[in-house]
């Protein structure tokens, strides 16, 4: 008969809380030395848990060849960042960043399990100097 209710024989207990995770984002970047290719990057852990060390990637694109051909591709180890905290790091391309675009990726090696894995990229555009 379809009109009968069944109840569990015992209480299943409280629901487990969701695990808090870090969330690394590139809050800002500033090309501080276009001739030396030095970019200051502000990394923010806006998540609810500490983030361990991870890798930052900088790609300098050939002028007019954004996402097609790069001039250089460098990595920097970023130290651990506590939940809610920010850290500024400098990454050096070793080549001039002039009249072209560049891309930055935080946690490029996926060392940190994050609450949002789709917000780890930022773009920059360098003018003529």
Notable features of this structure?
129 residues; mainly beta; Immunoglobulin-like; three-stranded antiparallel sheet; 7 strands
3D structure, described in words:
By secondary structure, the protein is mainly beta. It has a domain at 24-108 and 121-125: Immunoglobulins (Immunoglobulin-like). The protein contains no helices and 7 strands. Strand 1 (24-33) and strand 2 (38-45) form a beta hairpin. The radius of gyration is 22 Å and the shape is elongated. 22% of the residues are buried.
Describe the structure concisely:
By secondary structure, this protein is mostly beta strands. The protein has strands spanning 24-33, 38-45, 54-61, 70-78, 86-92, 101-106, 121-125. It starts with 23 loop residues before the first strand and ends with a strand.
Count of extended strands: 7
- The CATH topology of one domain is given as Immunoglobulin-like
CATH class of one domain: Mainly Beta
What is the 3D shape? elongated
SSE map:
Blueprint: E1 24-33, E2 38-45, E3 54-61, E4 70-78, E5 86-92, E6 101-106, E7 121-125
Antiparallel strand pairs: 1-2, 2-5, 3-4, 3-6, 6-7
